[in-house]
Amino acid sequence: MRRLLVLVLSALLVSSTGVAAADEQVVGGERASIEANPWVVHLLDDRGTQFCGGTLVAPQKVLTAAHCATGRAARDVQVVAGREDKQDRQAGVVAAVTDIWIHRQYVSADQGEDVAVLTLRKSLSYPPLPFAEPTDQALYEPGTELRALGWGRTSENGRTSRYLMQATVPVLPDDYCLDTYPHFLKEDMFCAGYDAGKVDTCQGDSGGPVVAGGKLVGVTSWGEGCARRGKPGVYVRISRYAKDLHPVVDASPPAVVEP
C-alpha cells in the first residue's frame, strides 16, 4: 500500500527543534512550531480539506510531490502558510495557486520524478527554504538525521493531525532500501527510518519537507504502510532534481489579471 501523505510519530521520536507541548492526538511524538519552520505549508483541495504538504522555496513558489498535484487544476488548490493549527483560521495566510508544474517524466511516485512546483497568486512574506544541490551529497550519507514535517495521520489507519508534527529519522543505506523495495531507484530516491519501524511519514504528509543542514533534502513520496517494521519511508532525492527545479523556481511568475 502506498503511503501518500501524513506523519506517524512514536515513542522513538527524538527531535527537539521548534517543539511545542504535545497533545492527546500525538502518538508518542512531538508538535513542531511554525515559527521554527516558517517555510512548511499545507495544501487544501476544492472542498477545503488538507491533502498534502509542501515547502515554500521562493516567495511565490511551493515545492511538493507530483502525485499531490497530478490531475488537479490550479484553481482547485490553495496553499496555507504560517498556520500551525489547521483549525486556527485567524493564523497565517491562504494563497491561491495560478500554475502547476509537474516533472515531465513523472508517471508514478515509485517510478521517480515525484516533484511539482506550485506558483502562487501572491508573494508570501515567510522565509523560503533553500533546496539541496548536487554538491550536498554529504546530507544523504547513511546515518544522517533528518526531520520530516507534516499534518498527516498519526497512525496507519488513524486520523490526520490538527497540528504540525515532526519526526527525526536517519538516512538508511541504499542497499537496505533496494532489499526492501526492489524497484527503488537510488539515483532519484533515498529511504529513511528505523528497522523496527515506529517512526515514519504516512498518509497526508506527501509533498511535505524533509530537512537536514538547513536545506530541503527530500519530499515525502511513498512507502509500504506507515511505521511498519522493515518498511522505511521513501523520499525524493531533491539534489537530483535541482537542475530541473531551478528554471521553474527562479522564473518570475506570469502576471495574473484579476477578473
TrEMBL record:
GO terms for biological process: proteolysis. Residues 26-250 form the Peptidase S1 domain. Pfam families: Trypsin (PF00089). Keywords: Disulfide bond, Hydrolase, Protease, Serine protease, Signal. Residues 1-21 form the signal peptide. One of its GO terms (molecular function) is serine-type endopeptidase activity. InterPro entries: Peptidase_S1, Peptidase_S1_PA, Peptidase_S1_PA_chymotrypsin, Peptidase_S1A, Trypsin_dom, TRYPSIN_HIS, TRYPSIN_SER. PANTHER family: FI18310P1-RELATED, POLYSERASE-RELATED. Belongs to the peptidase S1 family. This is Trypsin. It comes from Lentzea albida. The lineage of its organism: Bacteria, Bacillati, Actinomycetota, Actinomycetes, Pseudonocardiales.
